[in-house]
From TrEMBL:
Keywords: CBS domain, Chloride, Chloride channel, Ion channel, Ion transport, Membrane, Repeat, Transmembrane, Transmembrane helix, Transport, Voltage-gated channel. It is a multi-pass membrane protein. Residues 706-762 form the CBS domain. It comes from Hibiscus sabdariffa. This is Chloride channel protein.
Length: 774
C-alpha cells in the first residue's frame, strides 16, 4: 500500500492516506480516500467499527422485530455475566497458583537455611529459575503475543487497530500460565496488567463462540461477529481484569473509561459495571471458600488488598508540604522509569531479540538468577535490629516465624528476638512487601538505609525486567517502588515534626499513588483503585493531590508508560487530542495530488483479482454513471467483502450490465454475517481463493454489497475536524470530495427527535424542516 504517514511531535497520531492510480479517464481527480489503515509490515490493520449499511444489512434489520431487540439485549447482558465469571475464575486460578508456589518456596527455603544459608540460596535460585524458564518457554514457543502486559495492544484494539494474535486462545493460555511462572519466580513484575489482557481474551473468545482451531467452540455463542460488538465485549473484559486484579469493581469501570477506550456510551457503562460487579462476587466467594483451608497456602491474602483503615486518623496542614514533595518525586521517578524502559526496549528490539527465541530465554533466565541473588544476598549483608517493645493490644508479632508472611522477618540473625528489615521487604513476595510497607503502628521498623538500598535495587530490576519475553505487569512493581520512597519521606517527616500521630505507612500509600501517576498518568481511575485496595476513604483528598502533582510533573518530560510502549510496538494510536499542527492543514493537503483507484459498479472478476493482488488497500470507492454520463460515487466497497464474493462465486454474472435488483431476485446470496472477519485470524486472503478461467471472465454487480453511505468531508475541512471525526466514530475510511454545488436540506436538532403519532402508535416519522432544494 502506498501510504503517506503524517507524523509530528511525539508521533502519536499516524495516518495513512490511500493514494492509488486512478482509472484512465481520470474523471474523479478531486476525490480522495482518507484511511486509518496502516502498512502491514508490523501485522497491524485497522478495524471496521462503522456499520456497513448495505442491502444485506438493511434486509436483515427489516426482518428483525421487537422480540429480536429484546433477545439481543438479553444476550449482551448474558455475555457480560459470562465475561465476569470467566475473568474472576481465571484470576482466582492465577492467584491460588502464585501464592502456593511462593508459599511452598519460602517454607522450603526457611527450613533449609536453618542448616545452611548457601544451600538455601542455591535452592532458591533454582526454584525461581525453573518457574521463569517455564514462563519464557511458553511465551517464545507457544504464545508470543502473550509477552508483556498486553495493555498497549488492547488499548490499540479499542482505538481501532487490530494486531494479529493478541486475542487468540493460545494467547489466553500463555497469559495465564506465563503469569504464574514469571510472578511466582520472583521477578520484579506483577500479574495485574496481564489480567487485563486475560479478561479481554476471554471476552473476545466468548463473542466468537470459542476457538475453532482447538475445537472448543459453540455455535449458539456466536452472536457478535462485528467489530463494534467485539469492541464492547473487550471493553467489558478490560474492566473485569482490573476488578479481578485489585478487587476494585468501580476502579475497573473507570480504568476502562479513562485509560483504554476511545469510544463510550451509557449503555456500555451499565454492562461494564455489571461485569465488574460479577467479578467482585466471584472473587469474594472464592476467597471465602479458600479461608477454610481448601487452597493450600492461599488464604486471606493473594488478592491485592492492603487494609490501612486502622492507620493514621488525621493529618495536619504541616504535612501537606512533604506530601506534595512525594508527588514531585513520583512524577520525576515515573518519567525517568518510562524513559529508561524506552531505551532498554529499543536496545532489546534492535539488537538482542533479533537473535531469536533462544536469546530471549537466556535473557529471562539470567535476569531471574540476578534477581534471586540480590533478593537473597542483600539481606545477608544487613545487620539485624532488636525487636521493639510490642503493644499489648497489637496483633503484630516480632519476630515472625520463618516462612510466615508479615512484619519483622527473622533472617540471618544471631538472636531470636531480632529481625532483618531488609529481608522483610526483599526476601518476600511483592504483595507481602507492600503490606509491610503500608502497615501502621510500625514506626522505625525500616531504616532509611535499608529503604534506600531496596529502592535503588528494585527500581533497577524493574527497568531491566520490563520488556522480557514473559507476561509482565507494572502496577504492583510501581506500588512497591512508590511505597518505598514514600515510607522514606515518612521517616524524615516523623523525625522532623516529632508527632506521634504520623504514620509512615500513610506516606507509603501516597508514594505508591504518586509513582503510578507519574508513570502511567492515570488520575481518576487510579485514585479510586487506591482507595478500594486500601479500604480507607479518609486519604482520598491526599491521593488526589499527589496524583495531580505527579501527573503534571511527569507530563513535562514524556507521555505515559502505555502510550510510549504502544509507539515502540508500532501501534498507531489516535490520541484524544489532535496535534496543534493539524489546525493549519486541510484534508486535501494530506491526501496529496495522486488519484484514487476506484471500481465500477459492475466489475470484471479478473479486474478485481488483479486489483487485490497488486495492493493491500482495504477500501475502494465504487463509481457509477448517471444518464448524462457523469460519474457518481455510489459507495465504498471493502476488501474483505470483495474476498467473500470471490470465494462464494454466488453473485457472479455473465452480463456486464447492472442487475437492476436490490438482491431479492436471486435465490441465494452470502449471508450478512459471512462478511464478518474472524477475530482469531486474518480472514480470507486473495491467495487462498482459486478461480477458473471461466470465473475470471464473469462480472459482479457491487451495488448490493457496498456501503452506500460512507462518511464524506469537503476537501478544505481542517485536519483537526477530520481527526476528531475519525477517532470519535471509530472510522476506517473517509471520502474527501470537492465542495458540493447545491444543498438539498438542512438538519437541525429537532429533526433528529422522533415523535410518536398519537393516532397510530405503531408508526413513527422523522420531521424535516428543509425539504426543498436550494
Amino acid at each position: 500500500m502506498l501510504s503517506n504517514h503524517f507524523e509530528n511531535g511525539a508521533e502519536t497520531a499516524r495516518f495513512a492516506w490511500s493514494r492509488l492510480s486512478h482509472s484512465d479517464d481520470g474523471e474523479l481527480d478531486g476525490v480522495g480516500l482518507l484511511s486509518t489503515t496502516t502498512s502491514n509490515r508490523n501485522g497491524v490493520e485497522s478495524l471496521d467499527y462503522e456499520v456497513i449499511e448495505n442491502y444485506g444489512y438493511r434486509e436483515e434489520q427489516a426482518q428483525r422485530g421487537n422480540l429480536f431487540v429484546i433477545y439481543n439485549a438479553g444476550v449482551k447482558w448474558f455475555f457480560a455475566l459470562l465475561i465476569g465469571i470467566g475473568t474472576g475464575l481465571a484470576a482466582v486460578f492465577i492467584n491460588i497458583s502464585v501464592e502456593n508456589f511462593a508459599g511452598w518456596k519460602f517454607a522450603l527455603i526457611f527450613n533449609i537455611i536453618h542448616k545452611s544459608y548457601l544451600a538455601g540460596c542455591l535452592i532458591y535460585i533454582l526454584i525461581n529459575l525453573a518457574l521463569v524458564f517455564s514462563s519464557v518457554y511458553i511465551i517464545t514457543q507457544f504464545a508470543p503475543a502473550a509477552a508483556g502486559s498486553g495493555i498497549p495492544e488492547i488499548k490499540g484494539y479499542l482505538n481501532g487497530v487490530d494486531i494479529h494474535g493478541i486475542l487468540l486462545f493460545r494467547t489466553l493460555i500463555g497469559k495465564i500460565f506465563g503469569s504464574i511462572g514469571s510472578v511466582g519466580g520472583g521477578l520484579a513484575l506483577g500479574k495485574e496488567g496481564p489480567l487485563v489482557h486475560t479478561g479481554a481474551c476471554i471476552a473476545s473468545l466468548l463473542g466468537q463462540g470459542g476457538s475453532t482451531k482447538y475445537h472448543l467452540s459453540s455455535r449458539w455463542l456466536q452472536g457478535f461477529k462485528s467489530d463494534r460488538d467485539r469492541r464492547d465485549l473487550v471493553t467489558c473484559g478490560c474492566a473485569a481484569g482490573v476488578a479481578a486484579a485489585f478487587r476494585a469493581p468501580v476502579g475497573g469501570v473507570l480504568f476502562a473509561l479513562e485509560e483504554v477506550t476511545s469510544w463510550w456510551r451509557s449503555q456500555l457503562m451499565w454492562r461494564v459495571f455489571f461485569t465488574s460487579a460479577v467479578v467482585a462476587v466471584v472473587v469474594r466467594v472464592a476467597m471465602g471458600w479458600c479461608k477454610s483451608g481448601n487452597c493450600g497456602h492461599f488464604g486471606s491474602g493473594g488478592f491485592i488488598i492492603w487494609d490501612i483503615s486502622d492507620g493514621q486518623e488525621d493529618y495536619s496542614f504541616e504535612e501537606l508540604l512533604p506530601m506534595a514533595l512525594i508527588g514531585v518525586i513520583g512524577g520525576l521517578l515515573g518519567a525517568l522509569f518510562n524513559q529508561l524502559t524506552i531505551y532498554v526496549t529499543r536496545w532489546r528490539r534492535n539488537y538482542l531479540h533479533k537473535k531469536g527465541n533462544r536469546v530471549k530465554i537466556y535473557e529471562a533466565c539470567l535476569i531471574s538468577v540476578l534477581t534471586s541473588v540480590i533478593s537473597f544476598g542483600l539481606p545477608l549483608l544487613r545487620n539485624c535490629s532488636p525487636c521493639p517493645v510490642s503493644d499489648p493490644g497489637s496483633e503484630i508479632e516480632c519476630p515472625r516465624a520463618p516462612g510466615v508472611d508479615g512484619n519483622y522477618v527473622n533472617f540471618y540473625c544471631s538472636k531470636d528476638n531480632e529481625y532483618n528489615d531488609l529481608a522483610t521487604i526483599f526476601f518476600n513476595t511483592q504483595d507481602d512487601a507492600i503490606r509491610n510497607l503500608f502497615s501502621a503502628k510500625t514506626i522505625h521498623e525500616f531504616s532509611a538505609q535499608s529503604l534506600l538500598t531496596f529502592l535503588v535495587m528494585f527500581y533497577t530490576l524493574a527497568v531491566v525486567t520490563f520488556g522480557t519475553a514473559v507476561p509482565a505487569g507494572q502496577f504492583v512493581p510501581g506500588i512497591v517502588i512508590g511505597s518505598t520512597y514514600g515510607r522514606l519521606v515518612g521517616i524524615f517527616t516523623v523525625n522532623h515534626y516529632k508527632k506521634l500521630n504520623i504514620e509512615e505507612g500513610t506516606y507509603a500509600l501516597l508514594g505508591a499513588a504518586s509513582f503510578l501517576g507519574g508513570s502511567m498518568r492515570m488520575t481518576v481511575s487510579l485514585c479510586v483503585i487506591m482507595v478500594e485496595i486500601t479500604n480507607n476513604l479518609k486519604f482520598l483528598p491526599l491521593i488526589m493531590l499527589v496524583l495531580l502533582i505527579s501527573k503534571a510533573v511527569g507530563d513535562v518530560f514524556n507521555e505515559g508508560l502505555y502510550e510510549e510502549q504502544a509507539r515502540l510496538r508500532g501501534i498507531p494510536l489516535l490520541e484524544s487530542k489532535p496535534k496543534y499542527e493539524m489546525r493549519k492543514m486541510t484534508a486535501r493537503e494530506v491526501c496529496g495530488n495522486q488519484k484514487v483507484l476506484s471500481l465500477p459498479r459492475v466489475v470484471k472478476v479478473a479486474d478485481v483479482v488483479s486489483i487485490l493482488q497488486s495492493n493491500k488497500h482495504n477500501g475502494f470507492p465504487v463509481i457509477d454513471h448517471t444518464r448524462n454520463g457523469e460519474p457518481l460515487v455510489i459507495g465504498l466497497m471493502l476488501r474483505s467483502h470483495l474476498l467473500v464474493l470471490l470465494q462464494s462465486r454466488i453473485d457472479f454474472q455473465h452480463s456486464p450490465l447492472p442487475s437492476h435488483s436490490t438482491g431479492g431476485s436471486r435465490a441465494i446470496r452470502p449471508n450478512y454475517s459471512e462478511f464478518a472477519k474472524p477475530v482469531s485470524s486474518k480472514g480470507i486472503s486473495i491467495d487462498d481463493i482459486y478461480l477458473s478461467s471461466d470465473d475470471l471472465e464473469m462480472y459482479i454487480d457491487l451495488a448490493p454489497f457496498l456501503n452506500p453511505s460512507p462518511y464524506v468531508v469537503p476537501e478544505d475541512m481542517s485536519l483537526t475536524k477530520v481527526y476528531n471525526l475519525f477517532r470519535q466514530l471509530g472510522l476506517r475510511h473517509i471520502f474527501v470530495v470537492p465542495r458540493a454545488s447545491r444543498v438539498i436540506g438542512v438538519i437541525t436538532r429537532k429533526d433528529l427527535l422522533i415523535e410518536e403519532e398519537t393516532e397510530d402508535s405503531t408508526t413513527t416519522e422523522l420531521q424535516s424542516t428543509s425539504r426543498s432544494e436550494t
